[in-house]
Design goal:
The complex is a heterodimer of chains A (373) and B (156).
Chain A: H1 3-12, H2 15-21, H3 24-40, H4 46-60, H5 70-79, H6 82-94, H7 98-102, H8 106-112, H9 115-126, H10 131-138, H11 145-155, H12 160-172, H13 174-185, H14 188-191, H15 203-220, H16 225-240, H17 244-268, H18 272-275, H19 278-308, H20 327-339, H21 346-371
Chain B: H1 3-48, H2 54-63, H3 72-75, E1 77-80, H4 88-97, H5 109-116, E2 120-122, H6 126-140, E3 151-154
Parallel strand pairs in B: 2-3
Antiparallel strand pairs in B: 1-3
Classes of the chains: A mainly alpha (373), B mainly alpha (156).
Chain lengths: 373, 156
């Protein structure tokens, strides 16, 4: 044995040799670098994009065996739908449902903004996806990462990474995707509409709301229990004022831990042989279509409400129904102020925004009910 | 899956989402009505409670919360209390002695306030009242939106 043999043995067993054997892993490593760039430099949903990208990187470094050990066990949280539900617990604890309670008609805009889910579902079927997979792809249109991940983990595990990456990418791109659609669908006069300040919501209402929503929604569609139940429990912890420690944990420590596990697990599912297919590109495109149709659906309901109320509702808040909280509401505020600098739509847009979270959970529950069995 | 079946599923899905959120809308209206009713009942029962022995102590407790942050005009203001509509002896006395000082119209301002939910100011200007409310809020650690003032009265 000489030194060249030893070096040769080290190289032949290294990851570099693995990359030469199957260059698709190299492509995935480049994809991971691009995602890291988008998350760190472009600040596209960095809290999720960075762990997802790093998961992609870890899983595609050849011969590590990490996907059979650490990541395999972390992934169980995704497979059993635990992480998305826990993220919803934190989301609920961070969300103020006051604007929705003050203006319950916002729920209609939240419902309208789920239109893209069903449009993308139909288009995915036309492209030849299995019905289950089509349903999971459609849920990208809900603009709700945890909901998309939960649905994909139950209906289309093989496509989970593509669906999750598409969902979070488009959520990050909301400030670019929505404004042209908002200007296309609404008129200048509609965008200038100034809305009256919403009424004050009492503490009692805030406490009763999560209990009532959980009871009604889960009784009607039991499959929504993990998402709606956790969302509302988180909100109840916040609103009671007696469980501050639990609310704080749900908002911070627990959510942060779960996001790390969720991100790595989802990213690690994006392994070259399953991810680098034409289907992934189709999913990315379908996700964009779903997003656009959801935005348009919310805006159209907003326009109807503008007409019905005699011009008291600014239709721009309808686009916030796509549930990406609070990004979509901020976009409504910015567009509203561009049309009329004295316009303050943020709190009004938060109503459809949180209604969208409930709406997308209901739509996902419907899909799971139809295709999950 | 035939496309017609898929179309039916999609239409059903949209309908279910709308139906569910409409039911929620209805439920929220009912919750609003229910909470408003409960709160109005609570308000009425609060205003109908007789002035108890502990009431002067409560007034004293608020009055005793003076510290160096109180300036002279605020120190003049010593009473915050919940008036009793039918107990006119305590409530009407200042009105009889200083009728011009009261900012509310009518011969029974306290009773009006009890049901109207307005803050009555007796010999206290709005700026002083605002300072006083802020101090009480700070001292009691009760959020301003949960703190209910019935009246503020200067006694000297």
């Amino acid at each position: 044995m000489n030194i060249l043999d030893i070096l040769g043995k080290i190289f032949s067993e290294s990851g570099f040799a693995g990359l030469l054997e199957d260059p698709r892993y190299l492509v995935m490593i480049i994809v991971a670098f691009v995602l890291l760039y988008l998350g760190i430099h472009k600040k596209y949903e960095p809290l999720l994009m960075v762990p997802i990208a790093f998961g992609v990187l870890l899983a595609n470094l050849p011969r590590t065996g990490i996907t059979d050990g650490l990541i395999h066990y972390l992934s169980l949280g995704v497979e059993f739908g635990i992480y998305p539900s826990l993220v919803f617990l934190g989301t609920g604890a961070m969300t103020d449902f006051g604007p929705l309670i003050a203006n319950p008609s916002s729920l209609l805009m939240g419902a309208g903004a789920q239109f893209g889910i069903f449009t993308a579902f139909l288009m995915a079927l036309l492209l030849g996806f299995e019905p289950k997979v089509a349903a999971a792809i459609g849920v990208i249109g809900g603009a709700d990462g945890p909901t998309a991940i939960l649905t994909a983990s139950k209906l289309a595990m093989d496509y989970l990474p593509a669906i999750a990456i598409a969902a979070y990418s488009y959520m990050a791109l909301i400030p670019m995707i929505q404004p042209p659609l908002m200007r296309m669908v609404t008129t200048e006069t509609e965008r200038k509409t100034v809305m009256k300040q919403a009424r004050k919501v009492s503490k009692k209402e805030r406490i009763i709301f999560p209990i009532a929503v959980t009871t009604f929604v889960v009784l009607l569609i039991p499959d929504t229990a993990p998402l709606v139940g956790m969302l509302m429990m988180g909100n109840l912890l916040k609103e009671t004022g007696l469980t501050d420690r639990l609310s704080d944990t749900a908002q911070n420590a627990l959510t942060n831990m779960v996001i790390i596990f969720l991100g790595i697990s989802v990213g690690a599912k994006a392994i070259a042989p399953t991810f680098l297919t034409f289907r992934t590109i189709e999913i990315i495109i379908l996700g964009l279509i779903a997003f656009c149709f959801s935005t348009i659906g919310g805006l159209l309901i907003g326009k109807i409400m503008y007409k019905v109320t005699g011009g008291k509702v600014n239709p721009l808040i309808g686009s916030a129904g796509v549930s990406a909280v609070p990004m979509a509401a901020r976009v409504s505020q910015i567009e509203g102020q561009k049309a009329n600098p004295s316009n303050y739509l943020l709190m009004h847009a938060m109503g459809p925004n949180v209604a969208g979270v409930i709406g997308s959970a209901v739509a996902a529950g419907f899909m799971l009910k139809i295709f999950g069995g | 899956m035939p496309f017609t079946d898929a179309l039916i599923i999609a239409i059903s899905g949209v309908s279910v989402v709308f139906m569910m959120l409409c039911i929620l809308w209805l439920a929220m209206i009912l919750i609003d009505k229910f909470v408003s009713f409960i709160e109005s009942v609570e308000r009425v029962s609060e205003t109908n409670q007789p002035v108890t022995e502990s009431e002067p102590a409560k007034q004293f407790a608020f009055g005793a919360m003076r510290d160096e942050t109180w300036d002279r005009p605020i120190q003049k203001v010593i009473g915050i209390f919940t008036p009793k509509p039918d107990d006119t002896s305590a409530a009407k006395k200042p009105a009889e002695t200083k009728p011009a000082a009261e900012k509310t119209a009518g011969s029974e301002p306290v009773q009006q306030a009890a049901y109207g939910g307005e803050l009555l100011l007796f010999d206290v200007d709005e700026k002083t009242a605002a300072c006083l409310m802020a101090i009480v809020c700070e001292q009691t650690k009760i959020p301003l939106n949960e703190l209910v003032f019935k009246s503020i009265r200067a006694l000297d």
